[in-house]
Amino acid sequence: xxxxxxxxxxxxxxxxxxxxxxxxxxxxxxxxxxxxxxxxxxxxxxxxxxxxxxxxxxxxxxxxxxxxxxxxxxxxxxxxxxxxxxxxxxxxxxxxxxxxxxxxxxxxxxxxxxxxxxxxxx
Length: 122
Known about the structure:
- The chain has about 120 residues and is an all-beta fold.
- About 0% of the residues lie in helices and about 55% in strands.
- Strands 2, 4, 5, 6, 9, 10 and 11 form a 7-stranded mixed sheet that branches. The chain has a 4-stranded antiparallel sheet with strand order 1-3-8-7, with no helix packed on it.
- The radius of gyration is 13 Å and the shape is globular.
């Protein structure tokens, strides 16, 4: 079973940038069709943010399009989320996810990381 560990969260001012990383162990991410990022803000449901397929195709939730970039490095067994022009609305715990739970971008697979906190100050 794959294990995921996120890192890179922290406190940043609105308009700033942050890069999150997800390190996988127990399996190669090259064998996983979709790797994704989700987030959960205080008082809100967990929501899908971005995904990337084995072939490198990416997709994003509308509110982060043009600001966030997801990528995967199979050689390093990592997935990253580059976040730019951050807004206070981006404040949340960000989670890495492995696998495809449905024939769509947003249904998560079975494997989750522990989450990393991102706080954007106004």
